[in-house]
């Protein structure tokens, strides 16, 4: 079984070519945003992202909401786990549209993911006392439920997460 391939995004401002299988792109103009790796910057950027998503996919509020949830979770994880407290980090986001899917790519210079891979996809055990519920682990479960073709790579001291948010 082969691993899913990461969505291929054109460079900023470029229009993507047709996909290799011959199907055409709907609108593949890439929108790029950069932000400081701080909680306040994530909040401000997510306001911009919301407006961009509606522009990219005006006919499907559900896909926009899913994209917003996934991106907010990824950005918050980068801020919380990728950079040391007080470190001045940067995050780059690329958003694009392809075949009614929203493509996303984040790139940051924070710490590598443990084991150089995405976190375990299993949902945390909910059949425990409320006081024994884990603090984390729900975000990556949600990301995996809403996204497809999710990939992570570490190259030249940079983390890159790519994914697609399908319609519906």
What is the H level of CATH, i.e. the homologous superfamily? Histidine kinase-like ATPase, C-terminal domain
Number of strands: 5
Tally of DSSP helical segments: 3
Question: Percent of residues in helical segments?
Answer: 25-40%
Q: Output the CATH class name.
A: Alpha Beta
Overall geometric form: globular
Structure at a glance:
The protein has 168 residues and is of the alpha+beta class. Helices cover 29% and strands 23% of the residues.
Task: Summarize this structure as a short list of keywords or feature phrases.
168 residues; alpha+beta; Heat Shock Protein 90; five-stranded antiparallel sheet; 3 helices; 5 strands
Describe it for me?
- With 168 residues, the protein is an alpha+beta fold.
- The protein has a single domain (31-165), classed as Histidine kinase-like ATPase, C-terminal domain (Heat Shock Protein 90), CATH 3.30.565.
- The protein has helices spanning 39-56, 61-82, 138-146, and strands at 31-36, 90-98, 101-108, 148-155, 158-165.
- Strands 1-2-3-5-4 form a five-stranded antiparallel β-sheet, covered by helices on one side.
- Helix 1 runs antiparallel to helix 2 (61-82) and helix 2 packs antiparallel against helix 3 (138-146).
- The radius of gyration is 16 Å and the shape is globular.
- Residues 9-27 have low confidence and may be disordered.
């Amino acid at each position: 079984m082969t691993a899913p391939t990461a969505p291929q995004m054109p460079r900023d401002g470029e229009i993507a070519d047709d996909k290799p299988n011959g199907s055409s792109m709907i609108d593949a103009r890439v929108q790029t945003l950069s932000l400081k790796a701080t909680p306040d910057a994530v909040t401000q950027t997510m306001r911009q992202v919301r407006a961009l998503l509606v522009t990219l996919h005006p006919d499907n509020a559900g896909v926009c909401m899913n994209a917003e949830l996934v991106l907010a979770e990824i950005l918050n994880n980068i801020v919380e786990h990728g950079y040391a407290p007080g470190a001045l980090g940067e995050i780059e986001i690329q958003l694009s549209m392809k075949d009614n899917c929203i493509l996303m790519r984040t790139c940051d210079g924070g710490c590598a993911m443990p084991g150089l891979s995405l976190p375990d996809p299993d949902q945390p055990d909910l059949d425990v006392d409320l006081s024994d519920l884990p603090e984390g682990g729900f975000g990556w479960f949600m990301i995996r439920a809403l996204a497809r073709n999710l990939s992570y790579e570490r190259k030249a001291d940079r983390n890159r997460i790519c994914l697609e948010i399908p319609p519906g």
